[in-house]
């Protein structure tokens, strides 16, 4: 994590934690003895008395690098699936919206997202090798009050720490127009060519651990379907731990948050190398566990439920 007087960020170590989880579990599985089996303790994310993002928020997007219209639609449809807005009918169950409702259990109250501005920087004005400060600069272009800004980087754009220690980031920075206020931002990169085994599992075989066959991506795009998993991770962390004093476990510079506390779990019965129960689309043989707008299907990670102190899945 990088801190300054103007910004701080919480790196989502989902891919890194997943790799370690698979590696350690695979190594230990061969030597597990009955005497070593103990009752698993409840997972607890402590609330540190900070502000949470509750209420109505505008979701702005910065597209950095080249994304196809199809890729943009997959990501935008996911965002629009999170909140049931007026004029839209509810998606069939299990839905993206029902997954998002788990965040309401964090100090009670919904976070409603409405799609706002979208800007494109296909020419990559800051180059194709970005640092964390560059992400903040890009996000600040469409920042504001009650705004969450997402920066999506294309598959050929390198970002500091990407693949090595993180698949995405969320944080906050001071507003350029009002230095007394802060805005929240998230960043997610397309891992298609750089690290699909780390940041697009289970749609690609992992670098470490059991080498089970990958699942078929529900939208036919391994990189962007992987981005959905990581976007879900950072968004849940953003609203439940926006300023590093919300819900988390461990040190604030490397916190386990709402979703990152449940690595590798997408359905019931999950274990190392197996993401758990999923639903299957007959024609494409793809795997999913949530339905969204425009007939979309997504695979979403488990989220910690503060009422049960456990990782909750949709199926």
From TrEMBL:
InterPro entries assigned: EXORDIUM-like
- Report one GO cellular component: apoplast
Q: Which UniProt keywords apply?
A: Apoplast, Secreted, Signal
**Superkingdom, according to UniProt?**
Eukaryota
Transmembrane helix as UniProt keyword: no
Establish whether keyword Signal is in the entry: yes
Q: Where in the cell is it found?
A: Secreted, Extracellular space, Apoplast
Q: Which residues form the signal peptide?
A: 1-32
- Family membership, please give it: Belongs to the EXORDIUM family.
Indicate what this protein is called per its UniProt record.
Answer: Protein EXORDIUM-like 2
Q: Which organism is it from?
A: Aristolochia fimbriata
